[in-house]
């Protein structure tokens, strides 16, 4: 490792050229290897080595695998920059395709498939066709993967030369590595084609499942991923296949576990035996526990995917809520992900323990975690009316701490509780109004202003409180400014004549002084409305309060299906499908079958 570090030093091209052309006795090419390593290291550091192209091509003829690897890597890197120079290497690569060493044959083939130059593409077709039937399985594996690479470069040339059919023949190869690589290649091709599909029969799906034990980890992943293309046609097909792959749920490889979970969730759509579904759900639970006990990065990915699984199997964690309770040494991103899940799986049976846990979290040091915990208290207060009063008491205790950011977040939550349960908890307004100092969060300011406007008839000095906010009107954000205008209109409707004149003067000042047209129009609209019929103004301004909705992540059935079919992928961390993130991505769907069950019924049976 230390020797390799010494290679990553900027070298002069001329000096490297001299070293490379040194004709001193070097039978084992030791010096050449060292110079090539320096060149590759400099290339990696983005130092331009392209002028060494002729010297590198001369080295390509040396029949040493390590030297060829470095030369071919150089060729791949600079072929776009100097395509004419790259063409000089083509005869050497074609010759290497027939080398007696299978590793050199594979290396030459892989190198040619990486280079997007017409002459390379045309020259690879016939050798690729032959190498798909090579005597060595490593060469056949490389050839299978190269078909997909070539398809990305030139679809028509692959289809015209019948390479897809040749690739499909490799699905029945005697070597499991070749089979898994062919499955990977066909899966990638089908992702970019409307006409080419990877069709897997029941007998072949079971054959693949039986093959898993003899495969290396990556090959197991390729095979499991391919099973997403299998469509069960008979009632027990999905159950039999799921039973065969369930041992992979206890594997040491995280990717294998994730992929197995994905396939089992997919197969559940075609199952009708409720006991089998429940048994499999318990096994999924055990495997998710394994993933949650791994490194933080894996735990985070698991937590984000658990959000999706919970909509598919809502009660999978109902008796094990404590596994999502935050540990003192959890990183912030883990804690926040756990809070999302806690609020989602809360029910009447576990709500008491959750509220007690959240109360403890509000005493933590991290501001973001405390804020999210307070928000979670508010969500549960809205979700379960039976614990709302308890949540209110927690929030009032937090306000009494006199810590500004805690007060602001608590008032934000209380505003939503007021909207959810009107005319029920307004007795605490006086406590809120006595804690309005040092507000700096625009959202919290807007919440307080909303409370003052909505309940001004219950607040003795409401006009004075509002005037205090108006004193810094020009410095406030638009959110706060709009909230002030609406609160002023509400105050006008509910207050005495003296205060009404005061409010009209405030609105008039905004109309005359503000430079924002939206703000000016809103102020003018309120001013005209308030000067008219009071009954009409009250009906428009006071009675249309939007209903509060829970900020919980729920997906429509189509999106949920696609998220489940992409379980463990990067896009799922953002709760987005690949088609939403990457233009041109193929939309994955649950395919129709006579044994496909209604997903609503599946969810219902899992809840029982």
TrEMBL record:
<protein>
    <recommendedName>
        <fullName>AP complex subunit beta</fullName>
    </recommendedName>
</protein>
<keyword id="KW-0813">Transport</keyword>
<keyword id="KW-0653">Protein transport</keyword>
<dbReference type="InterPro" id="IPR016024">
    <property type="entry name" value="ARM-type_fold"/>
</dbReference>
<dbReference type="GO" id="GO:0016192">
    <property type="term" value="P:vesicle-mediated transport"/>
</dbReference>
<dbReference type="GO" id="GO:0030276">
    <property type="term" value="F:clathrin binding"/>
</dbReference>
<dbReference type="InterPro" id="IPR002553">
    <property type="entry name" value="Clathrin/coatomer_adapt-like_N"/>
</dbReference>
<dbReference type="InterPro" id="IPR026739">
    <property type="entry name" value="AP_beta"/>
</dbReference>
<feature type="domain" description="Clathrin/coatomer adaptor adaptin-like N-terminal">
    <location>
        <begin position="17"/>
        <end position="531"/>
    </location>
</feature>
<dbReference type="GO" id="GO:0051285">
    <property type="term" value="C:cell cortex of cell tip"/>
</dbReference>
<dbReference type="GO" id="GO:0032153">
    <property type="term" value="C:cell division site"/>
</dbReference>
<comment type="similarity">
    <text>Belongs to the adaptor complexes large subunit family.</text>
</comment>
<dbReference type="InterPro" id="IPR016342">
    <property type="entry name" value="AP_complex_bsu_1_2_4"/>
</dbReference>
<comment type="function">
    <text>Adaptins are components of the adaptor complexes which link clathrin to receptors in coated vesicles. Clathrin-associated protein complexes are believed to interact with the cytoplasmic tails of membrane proteins, leading to their selection and concentration.</text>
</comment>
<dbReference type="InterPro" id="IPR011989">
    <property type="entry name" value="ARM-like"/>
</dbReference>
<dbReference type="Pfam" id="PF01602">
    <property type="entry name" value="Adaptin_N"/>
</dbReference>
<dbReference type="GO" id="GO:0030122">
    <property type="term" value="C:AP-2 adaptor complex"/>
</dbReference>
<keyword id="KW-0472">Membrane</keyword>
<dbReference type="GO" id="GO:0006886">
    <property type="term" value="P:intracellular protein transport"/>
</dbReference>
